[in-house]
């Protein structure tokens, strides 16, 4: 049952990155869109993420609940030593959701719309940025559970080049996913070409920021290259991701929506696989060579078994309802067009 819980944890992180990340990326794309094209971008974005923009946070909630219930030592360590980036990320989620609601459903169109738009776009960038910072800090061996001063305990645990580079890479990935998804949400050839161009730009940004992650890892003596290229699974995953990247650029010129979405999702899955396979079951690397593990630091087995059954049974109830939600809103959108 422990492996069932671990699989759900990994899957929830992946789904939040793919689905929630694309939502954040839509706001990032709007932030870097010219004023003349922003209204059309918003219209396409509402159509794409409107039905499930709030439901996507379900995957983050599942991951947090799994850590809280099944791995209290891991949850408490991250909550204490990374509470600043966690707070910023959660505030970004709240601010983004609030701004999205008010700018879309506010009955009065006035100057407040400008404020809503700015809150939405900037929080869309800040949230995945700090999500990546948290992920980078978890594996950078910078969390010092024995730290005495405030800076060492709560600032330098996450404020370093590797975590910042990881945050930039995460934001670029989100923008890339959003551009890929939005290509298929418009029937306007001009907008489709615009999203294709943005997908290419975001992909280039992801490659550059990915290189910065490796550079920062080298500076901080983090064996990232060994984690990725030091095992057959990592090599195979990176090779597959590279091949799919070449294929994706080819299909971008063709505008094949379904193929592009599959390739983009596959690339992100391979990236997450390469960075978690070697470290597993370790999930948090601490300063001094110690770590927190998904097997050694799990809660009581009775708790794990109960959690596993709750996840399995919950999937039977939640997933069909989620799929029906998406299906029903797509049908409603098609009728309104």
From TrEMBL:
Q: What is its main location?
A: membrane
Q: How does it sit in the membrane?
A: Multi-pass membrane protein
The entry's localization annotation reads: Cell membrane
Alphabetized UniProt keyword annotations = Cell membrane, Membrane, Transmembrane, Transmembrane helix
- Please state what the protein is called: Cytochrome d ubiquinol oxidase subunit II
GO BP field: aerobic electron transport chain
**Alphabetical list of InterPro entries matching this protein:** Cyt-d_oxidase_su2
Query: Pfam families given for it?
Result: Cyt_bd_oxida_II
Output a single Gene Ontology CC term carried by this record: cytochrome complex
- The protein's superkingdom reads Bacteria
Q: Name one GO molecular function term.
A: oxidoreductase activity, acting on diphenols and related substances as donors, oxygen as acceptor
- Family affiliation: Belongs to the cytochrome ubiquinol oxidase subunit 2 family.
Annotated membrane-spanning segments are 6-32, 53-74, 80-99, 119-140, 160-183, 204-222, 228-252, 259-280, 307-327
């Amino acid at each position: 049952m422990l492996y069932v819980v671990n699989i759900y944890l990994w899957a929830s992180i992946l789904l939040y990155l793919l689905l929630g990340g694309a939502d954040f990326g839509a706001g990032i794309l709007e932030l870097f869109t010219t004023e003349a094209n922003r209204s059309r971008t918003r219209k396409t974005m509402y159509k794409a993420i409107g039905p499930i923009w709030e439901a996507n946070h379900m995957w983050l909630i599942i991951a947090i609940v799994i850590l809280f219930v099944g791995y209290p030592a891991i949850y408490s360590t991250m909550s204490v030593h990374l509470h600043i980036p966690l707070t910023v990320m959660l505030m970004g989620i709240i601010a983004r959701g609030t701004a999205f609601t008010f700018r879309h459903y506010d009955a009065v169109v006035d100057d407040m719309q400008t404020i809503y738009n700015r809150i939405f776009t900037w929080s869309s960038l800040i949230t995945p940025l700090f999500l990546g910072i948290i992920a980078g800090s978890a594996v950078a061996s910078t969390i010092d559970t024995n730290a005495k001063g405030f800076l060492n305990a709560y600032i330098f645990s996450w404020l370093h080049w590797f975590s910042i580079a990881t945050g930039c890479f995460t934001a670029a990935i989100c923008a890339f996913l959003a551009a890929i998804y939005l290509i298929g949400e418009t029937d306007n050839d001009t907008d489709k070409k615009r999203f294709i161009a943005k997908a290419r730009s975001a992909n280039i940004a992801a490659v550059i920021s990915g290189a910065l992650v490796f550079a920062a890892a080298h500076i901080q003596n983090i064996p990232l290259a060994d984690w990725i290229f030091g095992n057959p699974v990592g090599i195979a995953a990176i090779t597959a991701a590279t091949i799919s990247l070449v294929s994706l650029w080819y299909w971008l010129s063709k505008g094949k929506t379904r193929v592009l979405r599959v390739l983009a999702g596959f690339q992100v899955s391979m990236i997450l696989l390469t960075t978690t396979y070697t470290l597993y079951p370790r999930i948090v690397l601490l300063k001094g060579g110690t770590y927190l593990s998904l097997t050694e630091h799990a809660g009581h087995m009775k708790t794990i078994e109960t959690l596993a059954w709750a996840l399995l049974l919950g999937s039977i109830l939640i997933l069909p309802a989620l799929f029906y939600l998406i299906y029903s809103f797509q049908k409603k959108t098609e009728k309104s067009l």
